[in-house]
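Contributing new records

If you add data, match the layout below exactly. Sequence lines come first and carry their own label; structure lines follow with theirs. Keep one chain per record. Anything else will be rejected by the validation script.
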Amino acid sequence: MPIGTWLKTETIFNFTDALMVNTAFSIDEKKPFESVLLARRNYLPGETTKVYKDSKLPSETPDEDTAPYKDEVYQTEELLKTVSGEVQESYEYARYWHGYLAIMRPCLMIMSYKTMQILSFAFCILLILAFLYLLYKKVNLTTAIAFAIAIISINLPIVAISLNAIGVFYIAIIYSIYLLLRYEKIKDIGLQFFIVGSITCFFDLLTTPLVTFALPALVYFILLQKNENLKVKTLIMRYIKIGILYLTGFALTWGIKWILVDVFFNKGIILNAIHQVIFRINGDKTIKDTVQYALFRNFDAFDFYTLKIIPLLFLMTIIPKIVILVKNKEFNKETLKENCKYAIIYFINAILPILWFSVLKNHSIHHPFFTNRNLVILIVSIEIAILSIIDMLPDNKKMKNKM
């Protein structure tokens, strides 16, 4: 469903929202543990005659327990038939945790899906305003503007009506707000990123999980630049550390789900999930699964027009400062060297979406309508790197190293 604004048209993917509502509707209250782990859709307790295991790959031969691969599945039609009691076959989606059910199912008991969308939109606006205000108070105005431009570039409030797409952004912004409020009291930043990775895996269906690492990491290093004076090697090692711990939290949480499903229900999900991961990386040899095509699909979905407008908006913000620097000849080698240390981290952060598209080629080619939003990381990271180089981030206070 396309929704247009003055900047771009955003594609709202109703497919997965319908799947999520269907899964919430299909919970068997008499077998909650089984229902949560197997995540069935089109399931009516006592009425469903056939339940298929988590689907295999298109190249594999289906068996009696595994539904044949379908290129086109219309989840909205399936949902309508399910609530009307017209379905007899159910499908499991057991490779993911479906943690959203803990919020969605209780909400659907007291409100409609449309009301949930409205509340999500309102909550998103409030969250963005709180985040930008804290950036302004804790860092400075130009940093808040840089993040605001990036948020505008992906029409985040519009994205909020897609309950599937907005979850990772809620996690990223809420944790970023926590960092802004509690930075000076943080004792183990690595453990926190481990927890965020785990939470992301629990709630997300592999949409744009990268944002829950990259955006908070950016906020963390901005605060670090404001408060500490560290060597570039130390900065890089710290970035690698929180990245590894985030991935560990994500991978362990995902692996535990596969193990639980196989231990209790013997569904062969471990092997199937590994095959799915390999497929999302290598793709299907019968189609054009190349890095170049993955990049094109996502930049195209993001909108090339928007990519032209965003730099102009950002330049309008920094040109006055550049004019002052040039006029007063405030640039010097020592200041530039100091600022570039943190800019290195910001540029490393900026390339993460490119790495994502390159590694998960198949996933990025088939789902560019939501994976393109990873580019918000590229945009804001480059903005912050430029602000750092031209000395528009706060000066270091050279506080004691906390990590």
